[in-house]
Amino acid sequence: MPRGRIDVHHHFFPAELAKDKLIDFADIGFVSPKENFPWTPEVSLKFMDQTGIDTSILSFPALGSGSVSEENRGLARGRNTQMAKFRDDHPTRFGFFATMPFLQDVEGALAEIAYALDILKADGIAISSSYGEGSEAKYVGHKIYEPIWAKLNSRKAVVFLHGNQTPSSTPYPDPTLGIPIVEVPNETYKAASHLVVTGTKRKYPDTKIILSHMGGSTVFLSVRVARLSHYMGCSLSPEEMLADFKSFYYDTALSAHETTLTAIQTLITPDRLLFGTDFPAVDKDITNWYTKHLDDFYSDKKEMSEDVAYRNALRLFPRLQT
């Protein structure tokens, strides 16, 4: 049984991303640390050994663009096969959340869920907050995705939900406030809120959804949704909506601090918080800064600290207990 941390928010960057020059996110206002790329499993293993992480659950970065095509299905299958190989090569060090084809391809997504869980033995499924561009974009609570949620629920699947790199209708306000900093957290919140107000979260309670970055804006704005969305016609009561927000899991990646941890413990029970880093999109100094704040917050609460570090994850991923 692991006694180090389990990192549920740890990205896999395949070689073609570097070829497409997507590692240098200049167009969205973010630059990932050059020393982490080109990414290989060894880059992550070195980081994990240095930071006391026993196991990382890999996930492909959230991309909401694509097409309904055999090519897109092939990309998803290839990425999942790669991650499965890394897991097989290092079975105690890596797991993975399977990436999906462009989600408007419902048939393709259902096929990939079955293949990923049954053949590749993925630890769960990773999805983006929305799929499609501009006015054609659909958030994950949209009725088109209902067969996907029904299948995930029937499998009691773990789902890792990451905010999309969606630009605002206006430019981001400053070079130091790029899309990953100011927009991605809101995309996670919008997706979580959409799952709540559409009744999707309540209808499929056996799907265990992890919200990245401590839910982004969710913790602070859930009460706004609960009352105002009810006023605007959501059939759920404010209390029902808040109960649904409480039923998500939340990871600590790029979010752990006294301010946020104090807030989230008023929303969720301690078993719903999971450790995450967002490596290799950020460097070791950044992850260590957040981890120190996490450790400081729980310095006099050893049991809760260990729950967040690894025990809560062990309950979601029983295979890691062996």
Oligomeric state: single chain
Assess the beta-strand content as a share of residues: 5-15%
In this structure, how is the largest beta sheet organized? 8 strands, parallel
Q: What is the SS-derived class?
A: alpha/beta
Can you tell me the overall shape? globular
Radius of gyration: 18 Å
N-to-C span: 6 Å
The order of strands across the largest sheet is 1-2-3-4-7-8-9-10
Textual characterization of the structure:
- By secondary structure, the chain is α/β, with parallel strands linked by helices.
- Helices cover 43% and strands 13% of the residues.
- It contains 13 helices and 10 strands.
- It has helices at residues 15-19, 41-51, 70-89, 106-118, 146-154, 179-182, 184-197, 200-203, 218-231, 238-246, 258-264, 284-297, 302-316; strands at residues 5-11, 53-59, 94-99, 124-128, 130-131, 138-139, 158-162, 208-211, 249-251, 273-274.
- The strands form 2 sheets. Strands 1-2-3-4-7-8-9-10 form an 8-stranded parallel sheet. It has a two-stranded antiparallel ribbon with strand order 5-6.
- Strand 3, helix 4 (106-118) and strand 4 form a beta-alpha-beta unit.
- Helix 3 runs parallel beside helix 4 (106-118) and helix 9 runs antiparallel to helix 10 (238-246).
- The model has no long low-confidence stretch (mean pLDDT 94).
